[in-house]
Amino acid sequence: MVIIPRKNSKLALFFLFCFTLLLTLFLFLPWVSAKETPKPKPQAWEINGIVAALDDGYDEVEELAFDKLKEYDLRNLKSVVEKPEDIAQKAANILKDKSVDSGVRFGAAYALAYLGEVAKPYVKDIADILKDKTDNSGVRSDAAKALAYLGEVAKPYVKDILDILKDKTDDSNVRSDAAYALGKLGEVAKPYVKDIADILKDKTDATKVRFGAAVALAYLGELAKPYVKDIADILKDKTDDSSVRSDAALALGNLGEVAKPYLKDIADILKDKTDDSFVRSYAGYALAYLREVAKPYLKDIADILKDKTDDSSVRFGAAYALGYLGELAKPYLKDIFDILKDKTDDSAVRFSAAYALTNLGEVAKPYVKDIADILNDKTDNSGVRSYAAQALANLGEVAQPYVKDILDILKDESVDSLVRFGVAQALANLGEAAKPYVKDILDFLKDKSVDSNVRSRAAVALGNLGEAAKPYVKDIADILKDKSLDSNVRFSAAYALGKIEQLNFNNVLVILDSVYDADQSADKSSEVAQRRFLTYFLGGGTQEVKTLLKWLGLPNAKTIPTQISDDERLKTLNVLKKAWQFSTGLERLQQDLAKQIPKFTKKVS
């Protein structure tokens, strides 16, 4: 769950700062050789809850269901649910239905992309949507991405994808994603590598499309070898668009050995203070992604990081690059740490040094005490201290002696809320090392005097502790019931419960009751959708849960059945009766039940 800080708060401003600073790294760099965090394998009840939400009737609930589906590894659903092909069919039907909200259709395309084998029967449908210029451009783009991940089965449509890429009358976003698809499809796109390279070289084409071509060539690796010089020439051409040059740098960074002849060119651009800072930063990333190949130039990256006269964004990029290099950055670890300790340096650069240490893991072990000292230094910058906490968390077992310090800072009301937020995030990532402090984290979560954003992260920490938090399920459920609490805290607690275990009927009713509170909020539709989705998901999509949401919690009128079988009438009445018995204290839910039960009994013989 994403917790949005309050507007104009210090925490909100920091998040805006972080977002601006790291936007490129998180959104534009992942297509290169950066390592992806493995997605968890879902439990059957989690998938069942998501699938149940896909039939809700509210587009926003279905969109939330697809968003949740993205969090899991969907490749081996056969070992989790009986008929994963049913999910693929449901997604395909939604994708093809132009009357459905485009956001929901995006999610359906994504699901098909990652469902693997069970999505194969729908390849032609996906390709038809990509080719349909009358359809929503965002949905067509997602259809291109879906084809990219379906691999060999998409081979019959490679020429269609290329035709879209070359069609300058088509939407630039769709064309860019068509290029991306060709790159991901690898060997089957071999006959069209020259076409992709020609688009990259065409300065009259849209920047976004040329970016897609650079991405495609990067993915194609050895197949793009004949065009490496063309890519390098674009990087060196100062008259070209800076974003295209930056993408060319990343493409070279992803090509490995074949980019070796151009290493000096990349390093020269990184060192050229007269060049665009954006391009220079990306040259640094390119060298980092080349890893062993670029080893002779790692000192240049470290020198730029240490040069206080250089542009701060370039230095920030240098820190990120060194952080990515792991073991290879070991000779420069002291340099990174010296910048982190230097309070006279630019705060953004120090922040990036702290961020680099969060990624270096084992290599940073010799500095674990120093990192803890920065965390404990109340005179230091809050953002730097916050990331120092997370650097400690990423060091795993070696940080065990400092878990108590982290917890003490969390509980210290005199500490800046931003630092406490980072500490709570660190606890969420510490896993085993934080287990002895489950009760302390829970007590903190229950403390109403603490900033709600910080408490929300504490709830996430509890959820990540899984089995260790099971003895406190009732306490967490009580937090859900407390309507005097901030809604972010309550729903972080709900997600925490969902990570610990499937909610029982009693606690499902607590989530359902919150739908009526959402009905009073300024953002009524999205709040109602969120709570309805949570009821499906955390309740595991059981028949009881689906029955409750069919009649209660502000259901969409179109989903309320007009004809009901005798068997269905009896089952529904039993569920409503059970809900009444367990709804003590849930006033709005009881009021709705009081209205719905008489209405329903009129339909019953």
Report what the structure shows.
With 605 residues, this protein is mainly α. Helices cover 63% and strands 0% of the residues. The protein contains 32 helices and no strands. It is flat and about 85 Å long. The N terminus is likely disordered.
Outline of the structure:
The chain is mainly α and 605 residues long. Helix content is 63%, strand content 0%.
Structure keywords:
single chain; flat; 605 residues; 32 helices; disordered N terminus; mainly alpha
Largest sheet geometry: none
Distance between the ends: 44 Å
User: What is the arithmetic mean of pLDDT?
Assistant: 85
Q: Point out poorly predicted stretches.
A: 1-35
Number of strands: 0
Number of helical elements: 32
The amount of beta strand, in percent, is under 5%
User: Which descriptor suits the 3D outline?
Assistant: flat
SSE topology:
Elements: H1 10-28, H2 44-53, H3 59-69, H4 84-96, H5 102-114, H6 123-131, H7 137-150, H8 158-166, H9 172-185, H10 193-201, H11 207-220, H12 228-236, H13 242-254, H14 263-271, H15 277-290, H16 298-306, H17 312-325, H18 333-341, H19 347-360, H20 368-376, H21 382-394, H22 403-411, H23 417-430, H24 438-445, H25 452-464, H26 473-481, H27 487-500, H28 505-518, H29 524-538, H30 543-551, H31 566-581, H32 587-601
Helix pairs in contact: 2-3, 2-29, 3-5, 3-29, 4-5, 5-7, 6-7, 7-9, 8-9, 9-11, 10-11, 11-13, 12-13, 13-15, 14-15, 15-17, 16-17, 17-19, 18-19, 19-21, 20-21, 21-23, 22-23, 23-25, 24-25, 25-27, 26-27, 28-29, 31-32
